[in-house]
Write a structure and sequence with these properties.
Elements: H1 2-18, H2 28-32, H3 39-52, H4 55-61, H5 72-94, H6 98-106, H7 114-123, H8 125-128, H9 136-149
C-alpha cells in the first residue's frame, strides 16, 4: 500500500513538473515558495502544484500567478530570466557568456546569428537594463524590441 501511495504521489508530482518548463511554473506551490531558490524548494513547489492539481485552474482563471495570455516561449524566456537575470545582465554587458548563450539557445537563435545576437544585446545593454532595478518584464520586453528592430534578428523576437 505504501508503494502504491508513493508511486501515485510521485506520478502526480511529476505531472506537475512536466508542465513547468523551468522551475515549478505557476500555481499554489509557486506562490507558497515564491522568492525561494534551490532544487529542494522547486521540488516542493512542484509537488504542491501536483498534489493540488491547481495549475489548470490558475491558467484558466488567471490566478495563482498564472498568465496564459503570453506565449509558452515567452513564458519560458521570462522563467529563465527569473533565475538568471543578474548573470544575463553581466554577460550582455560583456557581449558573451554562458547565461547569454543559454538565452540565445532558449530563443532558438541559430549558430550563424549568435554573434549578431550577442553584439546587438551588448550594444543595447543600457536599453535592455536601464537601471540596477530593471525587472525581468522590462528586460524581456526591451530585448524583444531590440530583436524586432534588427532585420536579421527579428525572426527570433517572441510575442508577449
Amino acid at each position: 500500500m505504501k508503494k502504491l501511495l508513493l508511486t501515485a504521489g510521485l506520478t502526480v508530482a511529476m505531472s506537475g513538473t512536466a508542465m513547468a518548463g523551468s522551475g515549478p511554473g505557476c500555481g499554489l506551490g509557486s506562490m507558497i515558495f515564491a522568492e525561494k531558490t534551490g532544487t529542494f524548494n522547486h521540488v516542493l513547489a512542484s509537488i504542491t502544484n501536483g498534489i493540488y492539481s491547481n495549475q489548470a485552474f490558475g491558467m484558466s482563471t488567471g490566478t495563482l500567478g498564472c498568465d496564459s495570455s503570453q506565449s509558452i516561449e515567452y513564458t519560458q524566456v521570462a522563467a529563465y530570466l527569473d533565475t538568471n537575470l543578474d548573470q544575463v545582465a553581466v554577460d550582455m554587458a560583456r557581449g558573451e557568456g554562458e547565461a547569454l548563450d543559454g538565452l540565445a539557445t532558449l530563443l532558438d537563435i541559430q549558430a550563424s546569428d549568435r554573434a549578431a545576437f550577442s553584439a546587438a544585446a551588448q550594444a543595447n545593454f543600457t536599453r535592455i537594463f536601464p537601471s540596477a532595478d530593471t525587472t525581468r518584464e522590462t528586460a524581456v520586453d526591451s530585448l524583444m524590441a531590440v530583436l524586432r528592430e534588427d532585420q536579421n534578428l527579428a525572426v527570433y523576437a517572441l510575442n508577449a
